[in-house]
Queue: 2 jobs
Job 1
Amino acid sequence: MNSPDTRFHELPSLSTPITVSGNRSLSLSGEALSMLPIETKTVTIKCASGTRNTATWAGIPVLELLSAADVSDETTHLVVESDGGYRMCVDIRAALDGLLAFFRDGTPILECEPYETRFITPGVDGARTVKAVALLEARHLSPSADPESVEEISREEEYSA
Ligand SMILES: Nc1nc2c(c(=O)[nH]1)N[C@H]1C(S)=C(S)[C@@H](COP(=O)(O)O)O[C@H]1N2
Ligand SMILES: [Mo]
């Protein structure tokens, strides 16, 4: 469930802006991001290895970020890319349930990890919860296209479990 959360009005400042790309492309950092609402979501992340981690994440709803970039109705997928080039392609319905998270269990992610943000949404596998998010890009893939063909996992492995 989403709920507005007043504990997190202060976003940690980001070292690199986040690009959101739809019909318009926006580069969002400090002040622009702090204008957007923060929500919390409790999500269990399931990894291919079978491990499960449940945490409460707080961040900006993906829907808010995409609205700011005027995303087309034709969008089928959201490409989420890290600052190291790790890139995942997520069904837009699943992505719209997600958050660009800055906090895990009430603590800024950066206090415990070497990255500041994480793309969190229920219903995708752990590998698609991209850490150190640099880009959110709306895409329209034809029904015959393979979403995995636009993914890239080899360029960065330091954040894998
Ligand atoms: N940027 C980035 N995000 C990433 C990865 C990565 O290598 N780079 N690995 C993914 C994989 S394969 C998994 S299983 C989870 C691991 O998250 P954890 O460290 O919280 O268990 O992060 C995902 N997000
Ligand atoms: Mo993984």
Job 2
Amino acid sequence: MTRHVIIGGGPAGIAALETIRVLAGQAASITLISDEPAYARMALPYYLARDIAEGQVLIGDQAYFARQGVEARLGVRVQQVDTQARTLTLSDGGMVSFDTLLIATGASPQRPPIPGIDQEGVYTFWTLDDARTVIAKGHGTPEAVLIGAGFIGFIVLNAMAKLGWKLSVVELEDHVLPRMLDAQGAKAVEGWLRARGVVLQTGCHVREIARSGSGKLSLALSTGATLTADLVIVATGIRPNVEFLRGSGITIDEGVVVDDRMQTSIPGIYAAGDVAAGPDLLSGAPGGGPLRTAIHAIQPTAVDHGRIAGANMAGREVRYPGSLLMNVLDVLKLHCASFGRWQEAGREVTVVYNPTRPLYRKYVWEDDRLVGALFVGPSEDVTLLNDVGMAKGLIQTKQSLGAWAKYVRAHPTDLRRAYVGSGVANTLIQRTLLGAPARDRAYRVGGVQPPPWHKAPHALLVGTRPARYTELKPTPTPGIGKST
Ligand SMILES: Cc1cc2nc3c(=O)[nH]c(=O)nc-3n(C[C@H](O)[C@H](O)[C@H](O)COP(=O)(O)OP(=O)(O)OC[C@H]3O[C@@H](n4cnc5c(N)ncnc54)[C@H](O)[C@@H]3O)c2cc1C
């Protein structure tokens, strides 16, 4: 029986184990080792905002692992990997042998070397324990300072704003969301936040954090200004969890280097998720050429990686087309999204900007193909939300738009026609990662089964058999077709 071992119980590890179980059947032994419970970090801000209960951040409990036939060793760290003997040394003194191994150990937050950063009241927001601490300390409506205005920091900012906390943000770069938006898009976000009472300090850094006489924290900024806070959240970037691999012979640069089967430099050893530098969909030369690797550090990429690695561990030959760099974010009901190569200088762009709404769209072109896009606009703007999804499809499929490119340049707020007309919808509907439709995975926690929501009209609407659409009863439109 092949022994598959997975290190890490995050989205990448869980996606891999489910794929192995489906493709290899019961004729495979699967062991998952993780030093934390199995949960999705991206759910933590919703837990902070009390939108969900703590149990809802979990993506696997013991009953789930038993159902999957997986030996889950939670609360245990892997300390060393011996790639010759194919064994792992564990923090509880144990040793585990493997035939195939998946490294899905994610990343950890970085703390900048600021004097006073290690004191009580200054926290990262990365783990379930961090979330519990911040919830326990954040009584009433505290004053909070966020250090680092990046994607993760702003997701946490959104949760803190929902709780009514008084918020300030310090960002080293000249504008907020520097790796997600350009200066013009960020300006729209900054205006929106200031209008909602958030204090923004950009282009500066925190020199020191001290406890003032009043018991509050006091942050001295490089500009000479001072901010006070009950709580400080540090969100200044992450680094992949690779320390335990040093000396193992596995190639590491930005993260664990993998090929398009998610295999590392050692045969039979794979890596997935935030720890893995995997193929970047848009990095190859036009018309082909090898893809560069990148760490995108988002959950969809972690799940894709996990599924591809799991399929290859189960003996299939499945290659990954690469992940699309994307970030989608709600900032106090202002929607922000970025896709692909939006940062590239010297390319033709189409821009729509209206600072008063605010509304900002930027499309980056390579001939008649969309290779990058930025969006900023109010969350209640349904057209914007639809177009965000369609822009992703247009970029992801690398579709030549032909005459539709001219149309989009002239009508940049109407992507719908180009999306359908150029055949992108049709291409996407036929595309699967592993060569077959994904299975309904049901719920993973508490043995709960999905409610029977498949009412007949809904099943027809989401179905893929066009002929059956004629079975739908037309919905009467008020005022139309009535003879009075
Ligand atoms: C607050 C927050 C909000 C986010 N929001 C979004 C979002 O909206 N959209 C999005 O796409 N992404 C979001 N992300 C990012 C997303 O959560 C990550 O990309 C994703 O968790 C990566 O999954 P993973 O399985 O690679 O790693 P992880 O989820 O980090 O899981 C890895 C696990 O391995 C464990 N581990 C590490 N080393 C060892 C070892 N030596 N031995 C045993 N176990 C080990 C870790 O403790 C961890 O439990 C968010 C992240 C955070 C923190």
